[in-house]
Design brief:
The chain is an all-alpha fold and 69 residues long. The protein has three helices and no strands. 57% of the residues lie in helices and 0% in strands.
Length: 69
Amino acid sequence: MLFTLSRLSPMKLILLGVIAFLLYTSPQARNASSEILRSTADFLETKEQTPERLSDPEYFKVPNPFHAN
């Protein structure tokens, strides 16, 4: 059986809405939740964690061909 919002009580929906609004509007709450999600993702990652990988995250910059220097 699929989970639907109609099965939630109105009070739970209001509470979820307030929490979502506070997370959306508060930079500190967004940073805290992003740190929690990142640490959880790092914990669940299946690749080997080497010191080189930990110090150099897998970020890369895609050059913009339309940007003039």
